[in-house]
Batch of 4 targets.
Target 1
Amino acid sequence: MKINGYTLNYSAAEFKKKVSKEMRQVVLIDEKCEEYKKLSDGDKKALHYLINAARIMNDVALEMDHPMNLVQKQALEVAAEKSPYAANALKLFNSLNGVAGSNGIDKEPVEIFKEIHMFEGRNFYPTDLSSAELQKIIAQMLDVGKTAEVKTILSARTMVRRDGEFLKAIDYTEYFADEFSEIANELECAAHFTTDELFKDYLGWQAQALLQNNEEMDILADKHWAKMQDTPLEFTISRENYDDKLTPTIFSNQELCRRLEQAHIHPVPKDMLGVRVGIVNQKGTELLLQFKDEMIKLADLMPLCDQYTQNVGGKKGLKQTMVDVDVAALTGDYALCRGGITTAQNLPNNDKPALAHGGGRRNVYHRQVRMSGDKKKTAQILDKLVSPALHKYYSTEARHLFVIGHENGHSLGPDSSYQTSIGIYQHIIEEHKANIISAAMMPEYIKAGIITAEQLKEIYTTWIIRDLFVLAYPADHEAHRVADVMEFNYLHAHGAFSFNAEKKLEIDFKKLPQVVRALLEDIIKVQLSKSPDYAKQYIDKWSAWTEMQQYIAEYKRSLGVKPYIDIVMNF
């Protein structure tokens, strides 16, 4: 079957299987939610305007991801009215939020259409631009003095297009002027109705940031956003740069990096935009704040902490807010469910200028995402792969506690200059670092009275089973999953856990804290090296795929895999 001249890549039966047997739902809140009922009338109205803004931003993200996304989605929507075949293809498109994407299992990307493929630079760059040509053009532009142009091309907030023999950059506020104007209008309407003055103030700044080609406005919006601790509503425009695989390749060209450094240009991958909307859950937030109170102490316990500046702000205090959120909308980057879905987030990332200008961070946790799961399948995995003595330690709440430690871990350790200097490996190492900070620092929360020794066993057990027992060897771009494989190998090699004669997991709870502490120091050394080569050597050493991992993956897949996610928005 052809849609808009392009052939669907799977049969009707294959699409049906993917969207039924292989797809799970994450159901977001509706008007029946108790937290929604508690809102004032003004905040209820504001919430609806914010959800409108989220839907518009999804179209922006689709355009950033692939030049064919919007036109093919529209064609699928028309065809789906008459054809179940097209309707299922549309459902898979909406899960990937695009014409193609990883499902976290297969090595090759899932592609809705036979003739439409993914691009290394997504649609941020010309789709026919290779990494070699990008580096060649950048060098030529530096040769003729186009330094300012190069700086904008290699910044996080521009769409890049060909300009004769060179390239030109178009700021997001110009490229997406119509969409950003609509979003700003929705934010201004929400600001009119919300009852919270701090939230109202933030929405005003964020609306203006969308309308002006001025990085200072983004800085101000980010600063106001990161201050919100007690607001009833949550609204985030996320800006993360995991998807652009083209810009980081520049770090492999040492001569070009030297020239860029002389020109005071630091390449930053392009930001993919998304929107999260929700209602702050007060009870869940109280737990997060207990963890927050310990972060300054943890900064002093970080390995080699005298060799770098801590992200948390040192002795001057921690500039970070934390909220647990009942989620009403996830769009754009949040809805690119390509092998997973975000359960929590710590923003702004280190490359964002707000941090360099004294701004803080904000951690947001997604209640509806973390509460989704398959209890039956978990029980089967425990029975087959885990020693019976450990079954009692598997806990969904323990998983949440580990994620809290992970997100806080992003605020600890070397600053962004160390992270970005390892180029295409920065995201793998940073996610790896955050995981191990969580594991290594958990005993400190026992000392603080936040968790118990029994909970620590639950956290370690759940982490290993839930995260380190991966479904397949990950692709290079799957930073979280590559980190999981590395952690499995390191912990196994150092005796933190083992497998008995029946191939069932056993954990040495006394040794594990020592092992993760040593591992954390190794990771910090990688970041401090500022060397892509050293980072590659480290990743290659610990990311090998073993027979035991293959055994685990094959069993998990035999239970039936649901790599695709249907985000059900109810407003």
Target 2
Amino acid sequence: MKKKTYYIGLTALLLSIVLLYSCTDLEEIPQDKVTSETLIEDPDLIPNLIAPALGQLKGLWYRESYWGLQEACSDELCFPTRGTDWFDGGVWQEQWLHTWTPVHRDVAATWNRLNSAIAAANFGISVLGTDEDVTDEIKGYRSMLRFLRDFYMYCLIDLYGVSPYRDPYSTDYTTSPVYLTREQAFYFIVSDLKTILDDMPEKASTDYGVPNRDACCMLLAKMYINKEVFVGQAAWDSSLIYLNQIIDPGSYQLADNYFGMFGPDNHLNFLQPGDEAIFVTELDDDQSYGIDDQVIWIKHTFHYNQFLMGDYQNNWNGCVAPEGYLNECWFNDTDTATDVRWVDSTIYPVMAVVNGFNYGQQYNTAGEALGDRGGLPLYFTFDCPLDDANESQGVRVLKYAPRDQPVNIMRTPNDFIIYRYADALLMKAECLARNGNMGEALIIVNEIRTKRKAPALASMELIDILRERGRELYWEGHRRQDMIRFGTFLNPKPLMNKPDPSPETAKLVPIPQTAIEAAEGALKQNPGY
């Protein structure tokens, strides 16, 4: 096994318990006699208690979940309709056009997944109890579970503007949860993260893949950098406090190999020079997590006739990098001939695709030009409409390359990086710039650009930081939130059939109709839906 796994023994039992919880209204019903006393009698079981809540992270980072809701409505990713392909009942067009409905497939599924994740965390917290006269290990795992609960609540208030809350120590499972407003949830999450911060384990002294103190600092920094969006009050200085706790010790450096961060077996970067990963979710291609055929980064973008090294013969010809995003972030303010984030051809001899952006005539591994299903040249163009795109239109992106000898083509061996060091640096640059210190912000941005072999900027405006985030963090699940914070999310996208701005209400997605009905009056629909 490539990594330490927590999915053994007690974990299977706990996971089955959690899955019996309601994923919409969190009306938990206790299903067995697992208690804190059980764990104290057998301390070796304690690490496994985190597994159900930690395992919920795995299903967030694909096209129909949290990742898709952050990316497919932004400017940097779109699923165009190609004839009848990728219409899917209109869900992808609704994403791009910001016209979700309360019965949108991914809006409902993501709400349910995040609520299930909160229930999983609450169960673990309840088992570990409130006693302070316990070992540091128990305190650490209790804090990890609270961190995960807070992270899932943060995802909910970011997307939906509301989050359920239930006291994990309450034994009355018949009552509905309290639904916290965005403001209420903001202050709860921030207060709880500060409370657990000093009990969170340091990255260097804990297992790979579990939450650590730096992840807690990063989530606090995310909360504060978005405070103006969440509650209407800017808090750039507060964000800087926690960013500096990550940056100032000097334990992180920018990676020398940009795409090496995202490659197969990227867990081997752990604690090595240039390890940027702060918070990750582990994925193995020799294990099934019930999400096979979902988190596969090649399948949803490459053409049907692109088999890579011969194994991937069922690609779906889906999402693209839109022309407007390419013009904004890549064909201005960088040099695509040198910027290593644009194209890396290391894998090309084996796979006939590149890391980064794939465009122009496509070939197979024998060097033969590929055609589309109609026999026309498979030539990926920069332009691509939302409706009636042909098979070749649109630039295809590869961030997480597969193995050259896959264990199981339905799965991915690449661990998904939720937070990393370059993100922290760019957040610091943004906070400094918003506080009027553009000079120091420019130094940070140019530090990243120099490492990525992009030409240094002579001067900078605030919007340039958003553009740099679009170059550095593309397709990593940050773009919607970034665009909202910088005031560009509602803008028209005329090159892909969105000529008009979106209404202010589009900054939140609708609350699923099923959740509103289950809440029996305790949950109200967001404005505009």
Target 3
Amino acid sequence: MTDVPMKPRRHAAIRGRVAEPVERSYIARLNRVMGLYVIGLLGFVGAMAWAEQRGLSRHWIGPIFLFLTVMAYAAVGVYGRTSDPAEYYVAGRRIPPIYNGMATAADWMSAASFISLSGALYLQGFSGVPGVPGGLAYMLGWTGGFVLVAMLIAPALRAMQLYTIPDFFQVRFGGSWPRILAAIGAVLCSFTYVVAQIYGVGLIASRLTGVQFEIGIMLGLGGVLLCSFLGGMRAITWTQVAQYIVLLLAFLIPVSWLSYKQLGNPAAPLAYGQQLGKIAEREGALLASDAEKQVIAAYENRVRDYQERLADVPAALERERREARERIQQLRSRNAEVDLIVAASRELLAMPRDEAEARARWTRELAENQERARPLGGLPRHTQPFAGDPAGDETQQAQYELSRRNFLALLFCLMLGTAGMPHLLMRYYTVPSVAGARASVAWSLVFVALLYLSIPALAALVKFEMMTHLVGSRFDALPGWIAQWARVDPSLLSVHDMNGDGIVQFGEVHLGADLLVLATPEIGGLPYVVSGLVAAGGLAAALSTADGLLLTISNALVRDLYFQSTRHRASPEQRVILTKFTLLTVALAAAFVAALKPSEILPLVAASFSIAAATFVPTMVLGIYWRRTTRAGAVTGMLVGLGVTVYYLVIHNTALRALLPQSMLVPGLWWGIEPISAGVFGAPLSFVTTWAVSLLTRSRVSR
């Protein structure tokens, strides 16, 4: 009798002794491949730098970086192709923790983090501005969210041996509705997120190749599909590891170079504090500058002009059209240059087509000019903790309280959203064990921190560079990168001589958050090959996150909705094939939405985190740690959290609120919280609802 249980232990011990050398050999092989890849990447960058010095045109450098890096990712994706369900969905559960941490960091270091976060700190300072909370809240929230993942969620999910996040809800609560709601939430938050990534892909591809933004989207989309279409999680994991190396080098090289140029120390996170005091001094000088005050007065004149137009839209629109036609006739009568006539004709064609369009456009431009009419071009002082002043008058105290409240609300949503983001949690299904999941989260934090510590440094270094080199230069001697980026998208960069003195003032320069990192090498005067590397890094960040998101969406639609809600039966291989084609369809739909340029990257991403925070985390945590959580409680809590969050987002979106009846619209913000932090309402309500309904339904069952 005693020998029976010993045999499995003996066999397990033998298997462990056999598996251990195999695992060591597997990891050693991975390390060799990774070492060769890093050497090859550094050699490629060095070769491109040598070629630039030898006269290689900038028009070739960008496309070469785009083509070769995307082809490298595609080669990894093709090599990792598979139709095996375990390999396609969870990479065979054999990814070593260090490499899974690297892939998770790439998955996490999306276009928002790589492209937009430094720009947000440049524009918003440390805490954000009224109406646009942010700044350090993004870094603190996203990093703190990993702690929640490590402590509360990742080990428990890995122990359940599942494939997707909706799997957890069905296994834990039973029935189909928990899984269906989880799948719907996964699709909503992931689709919003992937649109932002593909927008970033189009932005970078168009800058590297010079093609139109929409064509740039399609070029980048081909790389996304080659990485994720054929091999699922197996291919995505190794392409993300390769992409992380690219984006790490692409971010650290320019920020280290800029730090060394300004401070003589390449360790930017340690040295950039010296520039904060200089920026504060420069801001004080700009606030007292007569030229800057002239710029403010020019913007105020524009504000009055738009106010007059909006007072009588039909008459103002007709007057502008008449003046534009007269201008074209005068140019033709004087036999002016063709370029001037074409430009005047384009201005006429670009005018609003009707009164409604004119009112919408002029209202938007009125708000923009009102913002630019503030000191420092509407930017807060860089080191200001919050808007307003706690020791000031009543208005300043109210601004301070509102700014701090929005900062904390966004921090809450980003932390909780990180803990519930499906494409992130799926990564911890791929490690060999529960201990591997914990180690993987730790490695993820290490690899994320390598970049996150440099992001505020880059924002400060670029602001100092702009204040000391671009400001004060002549308009007829502007660097070429300004005109090039303005052609890509005028909302990203515009420089206008508002006071007519021919000198660039700080208030005359408008930078979009999505531009700063991509333009950093040119702002700092670095070789153009570094610009190509940075763009390739931004492309890697967008592609890596888009891969994981598209797989999450297609899994939710096929595994968790289609096959769960129908009686259709299919083999695992057939499900994988259907998932691949669903992924293709979703990618094309996301590309279509991204081509409409619905918003900047950061607001889109933050909305997806609010949805994830309210839909998944309260019910998931209660389901893991409170055994009395019931199916009815989970379903009701998820519905309440998702419904409240989406409602708050919709009623404060100009385009979407038109779809709702007036009776459903509530004027104003709730407690002054901006829509970007909608999850601050949905998540607590979801938690309370799940808890209360579970108590009620559990007591009924017990009776």
Target 4
Amino acid sequence: MTYADTKRAVSVPSLIWLAVIAAAFLAAILRGVAPIDLALPAGVAVFPAVITLLFIFGIHKEWVQILVLLSWLALAIVACLFVGFMPLAILFLAAPIMAALFRQEKIVEALVMSVILAGLIYFALIQGAIPETPLTASQILWATQTGIIGLIALVVGTLFSSAQLRNNDLLKATAEGDTNPTDCEALQGSVLKFAKDGKLVTANLEAQKVFNIPSLATPVTISSLLEQDKTEQEAFMSACEKVRDSDQSWSTRLSVRDEDGNVTVLDGYVAPEKKGGLILHAIDRTAEESRIEDLRRSHAIASRETDDKTLFFAGVSHELRTPLNAIIGFSDMMRSRLFGPLPSKYAEYADLIHDSGQHMLDLIGDVLDLSKVEAGKYTLQYDSFDAADVIRSSVKMIRPAADAAEVRLDVSVDVNETLIVEADRKALRQILLNLLSNAIKFSDRGGRVSIKAAANGGYLVLRVEDEGEGISAEDLVTIGTPYTQSASGLSSEERGSGLGLSLVKSLTELHSGEFDIESQLGEGTQVTVSLPLSRAT
């Protein structure tokens, strides 16, 4: 605190004390008390405040502060001797109260003196060593009331002055850019303050540990903190210059290597201070950086594995399709009796070989297409066409399977309405074939599968319904997940791979469309696919 601050702080409670004495004196006169009767107690009461104000210009000196405290102790002693120990013994608190405006040591000194003197006065009174008071009853009453009220006012004034002193000290520290080391410790991370010349002024314990600062007494500069990495040192020094030039905070990335070679990665924030100083606030990001690096490695490994899987499926599909095509071709020749009749049993076997080979070929196609979608390598070939034509051709392709399963197909497409859509024709046919084959597979003999198509709100809405076993609510959640089948699918005689609906969902999403499935056990299943009529841009 400055001399001017202390002078003002001590003056305020003294002036308040004098104001209370003056007010009490005036009030007593108005009640009819003769001024001469109050002259003595009033004169004694104003004595310490007058002494304080008389020596206020030397209040920063040690002997003046002691004189002020002794004057307030003298007031308490006189009051107890001439008015009575109780209740005016509380005036012994006046000296410690005033001492709060000086250094902290003065509070302890004043308190000790007050306790000792109060004890001596009390002992002298109970021993009868002090003669009776010469004051009248009205003087004693006035002194008692005024002393209590005055002390309360003195406490209030001192609290106000003390708060003002602390506020002034805080404002001064802020204006000058002073940083208390204990304040630095309250902040998370490393906090370092540098003077205008770049020398370290203070640093918290975390900063000393991270930046390998053995002692604050050791000369440390901004540039020496990052001398291990010249590139980062230059970037950091550039950030410091930008802060000085713009008078605004600047962020930068730092890395510090300890004696064991371990690297600490930090997010640094450089802020300006008064007088050209700088504050560096650095947060340790080593753990986060390590997690990010692990994620990068995991992503790279996953991407590599996905690429390998795609290549594997492509290779396997090529290798399998060649012999499968031969098997399907030869079995088809046998079924058609191209080289003569076959015994009935062999003809049945030829049909089974042909159907199984075709089923395997379809599965391989689904696996390969789904792997391409997952790898992001399935490219849609957009074309503008009438979806009704694709629906009718798909129904023709699937009808033999429906007839074999004794399932009726109902197609609801308005012949007068053209469903022009901008999409991938092959993908749309694959969506329809998968939905229809799935519905037929899980329909009972004599059941019905309906296909409806209409344009609604800028979308081509395809809906396939069956009257099969349906799907439970638990299994419905997993539908669309690759290689996952419902309980009805697992119990079906025609087991699948679980890829059909997953591929439908993926192809729909590639078109920026929507996939929805509704089903209940025993009531069949309804799958709705909505594709934009126009290509999404």
